[in-house]
Design a protein that fits this description.
With 61 residues, the chain is an alpha+beta fold. It has one helix at 20-29; strands spanning 11-13, 33-38, 42-46, 52-55. The N and C termini lie far apart (33 Å).
């Protein structure tokens, strides 16, 4: 069941290959959903349980 409140922790995922587009597609194939893009953080995703996490853009590494 998706959460309705705010998450206490937010995980930040940094792609090891340096290619955030490939990592984004990989995370979506594993069940994540793209929530929105934050100019400061990167792409905000939601896991199947409704928890948010951030995928850093390649240029932010």
């Amino acid at each position: 069941m998706p959460r309705s409140g705010r998450d206490r922790l937010r995980f930040i995922v940094a792609p090891t290959s340096g290619d955030s587009r490939t990592e984004l597609q990989h995370l979506i194939s594993l069940g994540a959903s793209e929530s929105r893009t934050d100019d400061d953080s990167g792409t905000i995703l939601v896991d199947p349980d409704g928890n948010e996490f951030v995928l850093k853009r390649s240029e932010q590494l």
